[in-house]
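Quick start: what a row looks like.
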Amino acid sequence: RTWGVVQLSFSASAILQSVMMREVEVDAAVFTFARCALSSVILFAMAATSSSGVVLPRAEDVGMLLLAGICGMYFGQLYLLLALKHVSVLNYAVISALQPVSTMLVGHMASIELIDVGSRAGQLKLLGVLLAVCGGAVIVGNQAGGSGTVSAPGDVVLGNLFAILFMLGAGCYPLLQKQLLLSGRLNQANITAWGMASGTAVIGLTLPVRFSDSFDISNSAFFTFAVMLVLFYMALVASALSYTMITWALDNSSPVFVITFSPLQLVMTASFAAVFMGDEVKVAELLGMVSVCVGLWMLAASRAF
């Protein structure tokens, strides 16, 4: 249920961000930095009310927190916005649903969650990976080559590249969070807050490089009421509360099992996009969605063996 609520908030945020990036001239880096900065304030306020209060991370945790910030916020939020500027919400949702694949493979290579190919569980995991990857390839190929594509081919390729980098970063984030939780040196609230803060710092360091001297934020659409409303929702619900629930879920289960429920976002996002944005869902995309969902179900079923 917790992951379902998280995916619902992510689905709504994907729709809002897609409309904002296509209809309003708001820079992705500026918006993501503001979102993460506001989320950090909220998360530190939540950490301050916890039993241990705000705790400074130890030196051995700084590197892991920095990596969590890079994966979860820099790739997981900034690259999401960059992807939505070039591809449809459904295209993003399908690639996002492949997060369990990257989580499982990286977890195996890092010896966090090993795959035993000789067991029934390991075989189900590998078959699930194959089905998920094939399903995602069908959707992406149909999006890039179909006659209904609204973006130029070059934009679709670039958008999918951003989406894949987002998927890899977001897939590694739960593994890093789980390792921090297992260390026992920081509680859930502090891990989430410091991870968000480190991601904010990394994104902030890119802003001077991104903009020229002629850039003037006061002349952009950033300070409009609509953008501020979306920013507040993203910071409070899609970042602070959702990432807090993710950390709680990771503290009670494994990263692969938690992230396997990402197809919920695929279904919700596709439904929202069809109802509110008029996106057409083609037969090939439906088949790809089914393949992704079956593959990810197999990943979850492998835990029963």
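That is the whole record. Confidence is low (pLDDT under 50) at residues 146-150. The chain has one domain: 2-18+26-304.
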